[in-house]
Amino acid sequence: MMRPLKNLCAALLLGLLSLGFAVLAAEAFCRFGLHNSNSRRLGASHHFRAWNSTGIQAVSPPLEVDQAPDEPCRFTDLIRAHPYLAVVQSQPCGANPLTRAHTESQNPLPFQRSKDAFRILVIGGSVAHQFANFPSGESWLEKILNQRFEPPKGDRFVVIGGAGGGWYQPRQLIMVGLYGNSVDGIINIDGYNDALAITTDHMMEQPNPLNYFSTHKQLSTLPIDFLLKISGGLYRLAIGSILEHSFFIYDLFASLVGVVESYVLDNPNNQFNEALYNYFKLPEDWTTEQRYEWNLDRYESMSRQTAAMSEAIKVKYAHFLQPIRWISKELTDEEKVPYQFLTANQYLPLVEVIQKMGSDGLPAFELTSLFAHEKEQIYADNIHFLLSPDGNQSRGNELMAVHIANQLELTWKLKRKAGTTAGVAR
């Protein structure tokens, strides 16, 4: 009786040792056979968190990291298809670090202008959304405007959120066309998402594939769904655990997503190309520089159109190019951690565009030096400003609100209330 039991234990032990050896061998092969010294220096964790597929982001599970800790839903669970804006966010399913839960404004968007208040629509991406919406009461900008200035009409300023996570031009232009005639002022805070779109190999106005295909699930197939469930599960299992540091796990994950990407991108007749990519392709013989310059011109054109349309419908307008981590600010150790998706050199041409628009007399301003003298942490991730646990305090949003309010005083010729002076964030 004892001998068979001993044999079984020995067999199990041998099996475990063999499995352990195989895992170590696989890890060694991936680490030293598939990655160079620089890649090994960065570590598997860096590659996991830096995953930013330029192909089919719609079906790349890594972007599910947008979900808040301990929350069951993803960013893609918040979005719904929209006939003009590609996607909008609705039906919040929990706090989300990118979107502050949803883009539905705390102040409702009216159907027409009214005399009771001066309403300002804030458009742009997720930074603009966070800026315009506040957990309770007035937003940062709304509070400063009401404290310091007399509204051009009515008894108060009302700030309305009209921005969306991941939005970039032409969404700002479309928002003005759809809703500009129902408000009195429009503030456009953009730049980061636009710069990312400009650096791609297609037309910058192509909707974000992650968002688009997430709201058009009929385009998916059973094999793709299966592969994505496996790769997505592997990704979620790895992030935040010891597996995150394994090159074997990372390469397995990347290979699974690669199979999906090769199907989606390499088959010119598949449903993904027919539904999206074919509409936004640039000439294949163009260089990277040509594509960038073409998209940069598109950004300038649509930015000018946004300003021109606002003027045409007699709404006050101001365009602010948002700051990014890698220009002007001395970063804290915490601010250096998030992966750098965008370089300063890729963003500076947008600064030049805004400066040129300003020189032409348009209400366009760049905020890249806004945090030049800030020594403490401003950024919570790659672009969004740090919030207090209750969401009511944010040094970055407070500074931006003060700067924008002071600029609006000059640009929109706001009348300062008696006894108030030019504001400086403390």
Topology diagram in text:
Blueprint: H1 2-33, H2 37-42, H3 44-49, E1 79-82, E2 86-89, E3 118-124, H4 126-132, H5 140-148, E4 149-150, E5 157-161, H6 171-179, E6 185-190, H7 192-198, H8 209-214, H9 222-238, H10 247-266, H11 271-275, H12 288-312, E7 316-321, H13 333-336, H14 344-359, E8 364-366, H15 395-411, E9 415-416
Parallel strand pairs: 3-5, 3-6, 6-7, 7-8
Antiparallel strand pairs: 1-2, 4-9
Task: Provide a concise account of the structure shown.
With 426 residues, the protein is of the alpha/beta class. It contains 15 helices and nine strands.
Widest beta sheet: strand line-up: 5-3-6-7-8
Biggest pleated-sheet summary: 5 strands, parallel
Strand content: 5-15%
For the residues shown, what is the average pLDDT? 81
Helical content, roughly?
40-55%
Shape: elongated
> What is the distance, rounded to the nearest whole angstrom, between the alpha carbons of the first and last residues?
79 Å
- Can you count the beta strands? 9
Radius of gyration, taken over Cα atoms and rounded to an integer in Å: 25 Å
Structural class of the secondary elements?
alpha/beta
Count of runs of 4 or more consecutive helical residues = 15
H and E string: HHHEEEHHEEHEHHHHHHEHHEHE
Q: Detail the poorly predicted runs.
A: 52-73, 93-104
